[in-house]
Amino acid sequence: xxxxxxxxxxxxxxxxxxxxxxxxxxxxxxPGDVLAEIETDKATMEVESVDSGVVQKLIxxxxxxxxxxxxxxxxxxxxxxxxGDAEANSAQLKPVDVAPVKVESTDTVPAAPAGVTPVAILxxxxxPDLPAGVEMxxxxxxxxxxxxxxxxxxxxxxxxxxxxxxxxxxxxxxxxQNLLQEFGPERVVDTPITEHGFAGLAVGAAFAxxxxxxxxxxxxxxxxxxxxxxxxxxxxxxxxGGQVTAPIxxxxxxxxxxxxxxxxxxxxxxxxxxxxxLYVVAPYSAADAKGLLKAAIRSNxxxxxxxxxxxxxxxxxxxxxxxYVLPIGKARIARQGKDVTIVSFSMGMRxxxxxxxxxxxxxxxxxxxxxxxxxxxxxxxxxxSVKKTGRLVTVEEGWxxxxxxxxxxxxxxxxxxxxxxxPPTRVTGKDVPMPYAANLEKLxxxxxxxxxxxxxxxxxxx
Amino acid sequence: xxxxxxxxxAKSNVPELSKEQELAAYREMLLIRRFEEKAGQMYGMGxxxxxxxxxxxxxxxxxxxxxxxxxxxxxxITGYRDHGHMLVxxxxxxxxxxxxxxxxxxxxKGKGGSMHMFSNEHRFYGGNGIxxxxxxxxxxxxxxxxxxGDNTVSISYFGDGAANQGQVYESFNMAKxxxxxxxYIVENNRYGMGTxxxxxxxxxxxxxxxxSFGIEGEQVDGMDVRMTYDxxxxxxxxxxxxxxxxxxxxxxxxxxxxxMSDPAxxxxxxEVSTMRAEHDPIEQVKxxxxxxxxxxxxxxxxxxxxxxxxxxxxxxxxxxxxxxAASELWTDIYAA
Lengths: 462, 336
Ligand SMILES: Cc1ncc(C[n+]2csc(CCOP(=O)(O)OP(=O)(O)O)c2C)c(N)n1
Ligand SMILES: [Mg+2]
Prior knowledge:
heterodimer, A: alpha/beta, CATH 2.40.50.100, 7-stranded mixed sheet, 5-stranded mixed sheet, 22 strands, B: alpha/beta, two-stranded antiparallel sheet, 10% strand, disordered N terminus, binds thiamine diphosphate
């Protein structure tokens, strides 16, 4: 390009002094030749020629103060270029010299493409229709997760599983039972106890095109690795301008197990649901566990897949179809009703379901929603429901502040304010680290009675 | 292979312990053994919940090291396999057992559980559930020693599995960089859960893990309390005299499963019974006591009875003590 522009010495520099020209009009310059010296109050810099050519015009005389960054300071004509081209080029650049790089504060942030909140960027499809008379197979959540991984690994050789005790031990919670036998040690990889290291390694492998499934023995231990999950996996696509994907599933049991104390009993739902770039899935039923894990493995995005140790052994009916894949980002209405909306996910659904049974028996027409995916959150389904019922009760094991219930309360307050007949009400884990003593642990966790009490409060029954 | 030191037990150059030391070591180790056996039984009866990691087989490690330390002055920290450490450091067996059952008289008022017990008084800092975390914490205890100039040492215990965590090496570097009085004890019991050292470690000789940081290390027969004591004395002296950190790899063995539920498929029954029969730390001391006439069958039987009484008392307390008051749910979240 024949026009030499005033360079910036730092990201914040807006203008500077052209202190000295080291070439004259008519001089021939080569790449790397120093053309001029410029300075600010903090620094000086030499301006080098990028191309070869002849200096046609020094636009800004030396000694000029306050030369705006990006203003043309000289014209250098390349071989075969005629002066007219240069004029045209400098004319094209005109807007630049009046438009400094600074972003005006009046600029508006473009709206997110769709949805109620910027997060809900996809309108998820509904669950696939099942063929009439499809066979339903009873299995545990554990088996459902195992089948999902096995089926996907059969389909795509780029998928591998890694984690502590996933291979020879068959999984600390037996989710990877028999996978080593079927797929071999190259694809089912036992790691040392080095969460930060192997999480990062797996993300790197995903950058290179593999599709890792990383099992954390529990999500408590993923705190060692959270930097790689968030800083490396979640942000990669954005930081690379859409170039580098990280198709990876981080999975394992989340939340309280039983009597394992403060460092081993924590619900990370809200933590990960906070992070753009991640999808966060937290299924309750066996069918959802299977269909959503398959979807997660197929996704080109980093997925945090939150399982629950207590739910591993619970059974449910899973449709026997060749490829049972469910949409990520779609809530499931577990029961339709018109009096009150209860929203939960994962283990919270157990409390919510049991409470719903009792409430329905007592004449309360509960609508029960299982979020299944926490990010993107299916806010549409929740808002539509609350518009109908006028009442929201949320149930989760995590702490109240900044929790999923807090988010849902904001969502319905913004999206269904005029329909609300009572304040959105949260049932959560207590705002304390998990105690070990049996009686205290029970008190720390949410329970069925608390859900019923919350429903009674928002429906003004006593 | 990194097991040579175990095979070397009968060799010369074995440091001698005095009569008092042998008897004290025997007593401490027996207390751990009987306490842990009882805990295992109580777990089976549903009185203890969650995870419960027994120390049976590894008694000589913490016993020798603690004998070489200044009890109550030097800080100690470990992971979740922590009952033995507390007993040797002099914490009340009743308080330990009651913590295992989650009662108000437990060392953490029942709020911590098997993996989380502490004592400021005895300078025991836990009781940590996250594999490897205690190594950085222990290095911080050493930092505080040096900062205060109080001439104490910090002793951090961690497993062969934990030895692969990144923060261990970040800690090694800082400990050497600032010459902190830190003693690192790798309790190499050959397995991290179901994974053998060979399947998890590129360099299975953990005593060499400090080389690139300039930290000296030794491999020690961790089944022989004379060896653990002697090596710990050297390491602690090194740290206390201002020469910085030191690593001891204790070659030891856990007889029981990793926690209470353990498929035990990753090692042979034979391997376990050979270790028990040929290297049992308690049996070794017992034989020496009898040979050297430091005690008789009768005096040792009396000791056994005394230890059993302590353990029974602890178990009775831990089953009769009430659970913590419900209001305890909301206490101890913030310091005053
Ligand atoms: C960061 C972290 N990852 C995983 C675990 C689960 N876990 C508990 S103990 C253990 C094995 C540790 O083995 P090792 O360090 O050799 O100690 P040992 O149990 O043999 O005493 C594992 C994987 C954990 N508690 N913390
Ligand atoms: Mg070990």
